[in-house]
Design brief:
Elements: H1 3-11, E1 16-17, E2 21-24, H2 31-38, H3 41-44, H4 55-71, E3 75-81, E4 87-97, E5 102-109, H5 118-132, E6 138-144, H6 148-156, E7 160-171, E8 174-184, H7 185-190
Parallel strand pairs: 5-6
Antiparallel strand pairs: 1-2, 2-3, 3-4, 4-5, 6-8, 7-8
Helix pairs in contact: 1-4, 2-4
C-alpha cells in the first residue's frame, strides 16, 4: 500500500452508506452535534483526548480537520443518522502501517445513540472499505483496559483478541493497559 494512494483517496474522502447511516466528511457545520458528545467526560473516559471545553474549541478543531482532509491525511468519517440527520459519532482509521498494508480503526459515539447497533453498523462499513477499497491485509483496533463495550463491539464484528500491553500508554497522567483486536483480509472474506 502506498501512502500516496491513501492520501489521494482521503483528500476527497468518499461518502459511505449503510441501511441507517451515512458516513461522510466532517464539516464545521457539524459543530453542535459533535460538541454535544465531545464535551462529555463519560464519552472520553477511554479515549486519549480530554473533553472539549467549549463550542469554539470544537469549531476550531473541525476547521483544523478540514485542512487535514484537503491534503488527505485525515481518515475519519462523521457518522450521520439518516432518520434525524444528526452527527452521532465518528469512525475511521486512526493510522496506517503502509509497508505492511495495515490500518488501525477507531470510533466514538454519542451515548444517546449507543445500544442501537449504530456503532457496529458504522465499524462494519469502515472495515469493509478497508479490505475492499483499500486492499488492506490487516485491520486492528486498540482499547484502553476497562472499555468493555468497545471490546464487545470488536468481537461482534469478528475481530480476534490478540492481547494486552500492560501500562504501555500514558493517558491523561496515568499509565494505561492497552489491548488489541484484529482481523485479516482472509478472515473478512470468509464471513
Amino acid at each position: 500500500m502506498k501512502k500516496e494512494n491513501i492520501y489521494r483517496i482521503f483528500s476527497k474522502i468518499p461518502t459511505l452508506e449503510t441501511e441507517r447511516l451515512i458516513l461522510r466528511k466532517m464539516l464545521v457545520s457539524d459543530k453542535d452535534d459533535i460538541y454535544a458528545y465531545s464535551r462529555r467526560e463519560d464519552v472520553t473516559e477511554y479515549l486519549t483526548w480530554t473533553p472539549h471545553q467549549s463550542l469554539a474549541y470544537t469549531t476550531d478543531y473541525l476547521r483544523y480537520i478540514g485542512q487535514r482532509y484537503s491534503v488527505g491525511d485525515y481518515f475519519d468519517w462523521a457518522v450521520v443518522e439518516k432518520k434525524s440527520g444528526r452527527v452521532i459519532g465518528s469512525c475511521g482509521f486512526t493510522r496506517f502501517d503502509y509497508p505492511n498494508d495495515a490500518g488501525e480503526i477507531g470510533y466514538v459515539f454519542h451515548p444517546d445513540f449507543c445500544g442501537k447497533g449504530y456503532a457496529t453498523e458504522a465499524v462494519r462499513e469502515v472495515v469493509r472499505f478497508g479490505f475492499v477499497a483499500l486492499k488492506l491485509h490487516r485491520i486492528e483496533a486498540r482499547y484502553l483496559k476497562g472499555n468493555d463495550r468497545s471490546c464487545r463491539l470488536m468481537e461482534r464484528i469478528g475481530m480476534k483478541f490478540e492481547g494486552e500491553r500492560r501500562e504501555s500508554m500514558l493517558v491523561k497522567g496515568a499509565y494505561r493497559t492497552v489491548g488489541t483486536y484484529s482481523m485479516l483480509a482472509r478472515e473478512y472474506q470468509q464471513k
